[in-house]
Write a structure and sequence with these properties.
There is one protein chain. With 115 residues, the chain is α/β, with parallel strands linked by helices. Helices cover 69% and strands 13% of the residues. It folds into 2 domains: 45 residues; 70 residues, Periplasmic binding protein-like II (D-Maltodextrin-Binding Protein, domain 2). It has a 3-stranded parallel sheet. It starts with a helix and ends with a helix.
Length: 115
């Protein structure tokens, strides 16, 4: 009886592992499809806009690498976190939605960027 129980556990583990693996294998193409849709939409829009607190050398390197990899222009507005956040708030209050991505410090994001 004990051997039968052990075999049942082993078979269950193998079956569950196979089911989990099949889920991962089918999820990857779906994720890639969604990513391709995001890239296509960005290309159609013309550029990707990032607001953040990056140094000029970072900005140049990121723009160059992103553009060569995806073929999408990357516009980066960089400055001190509180200044970048204040600019975004003014734009939001004016009804403008210009930013796609923020890269700011955690404290600034939590204290300033609220809905």
């Amino acid at each position: 009886m004990r051997k039968l129980f052990q075999w049942a556990i082993i078979i269950s583990i193998v079956l569950l592992s196979g089911i989990a693996w099949m889920g991962v294998a089918t999820a990857a193409p779906e994720g890639q499809k969604k990513w391709d849709e995001v890239v296509a939409a960005a290309k159609k829009e013309g550029s990707l806009v990032i607001y953040g607190n990056m140094v000029p050398q970072q900005v140049k390197e990121i723009q160059k690498g992103f553009s060569s990899r995806f073929g999408i222009k990357l516009d980066i507005m960089s400055g001190k976190s509180d200044e970048v956040a204040a600019r975004w708030e003014r734009e939001r209050d004016a009804g403008l939605n210009l930013v796609d991505i923020f890269t700011l410090g955690g404290v600034t994001a939590v204290l300033t960027l609220k809905p």
